[in-house]
Amino acid sequence: MLRRLPGTGGARALAIVLLRAYLRLALRTTRWTFDIHPDAHPLLTGRGEHSALVAFWHEALVLTPALWWWATPQNPALRLHVLISRNRDGRLVTDIVAPWKIKAIAGSTDRKGKSKGGARALRRMLDQVRNDSLIVITPDGPRGPRRQVQQGVVGLARLSAAPIVPVGACCSAWRLGTWDRMMVPLPFGRGRFVCGAPIIVTPHDH
Questions:
Q1: Which residues form the DUF374 domain (predicted)?
Q2: Contacts made by residues 143-150, CB under 8 angstroms, sequence distance 24+
Q3: Do residues 136 and 64 make contact, with C-beta atoms less than 8 angstroms apart?
Q4: Which helix (H) or strand (E) holds 35?
Q5: What is the rounded distance in angstroms from the CA atom of residue 133 to the CA atom of residue 162?
């Protein structure tokens, strides 16, 4: 669906406005339930001793703003950065969420000698962790396999010493025919976030 949208110009700008309005409507009218582990709560609201890596499966990426809107009233100074691929779809998502104070870090794992901005993205994420920003990552992104954790998130956790907060999310939605079967929320539905106990990666973990 996203690849059919125009790449540049006024038509693309209009598409972004319409998609943003739809996403806001769908997420704001969904009746959310938040099941937050007690140890994860201070991390998700920026009240803990450390920053955190917030891990979603790629299929739930567009639901991220709902968790952000839950957290920020509890700490208006909270900052959120999301690791997003540098491809066309990633740029589109970045533009859609930008007015909601969700900052994007563009890049994905470099593969087969081809640079995809992974090293630069890693440096930026480490800087933001040190500045107490939350970092949202998709452990199975950007291209899967679906729901299989890649080593990038483990390496980032090891280098940053930041705990990983695993997050599961679902809602009334229809799914795209993409590799991740991404959820597109429906308005006036029900949804749930489940945030588990933080995971600490030690230097000896692989």
A1: 77-146
A2: 143/179, 144/58, 144/179, 144/180, 146/57, 146/58, 146/59, 146/179, 146/180, 146/181, 147/57, 147/59, 150/109
A3: yes
A4: strand 31-36
A5: 11
Q: Which two tokens stand for residue 41?
A: 């709560």
Question: Which residue matches tokens 């691929």?
Answer: 85
CA gap 183, 172 in Å, rounded? 9
39 and 198 in contact (C-beta within 8 Å)? yes
Domains and CATH numbers, the chain: 2-195 (3.40.1010.10)
Length of the chain: 206
Q: Using one digit for the tens of pLDDT, what is the confidence trace for 8-65?
A: 678 888 989 999 999 999 999 999 999 999 999 999 999 988 899 999 999 999 999 9
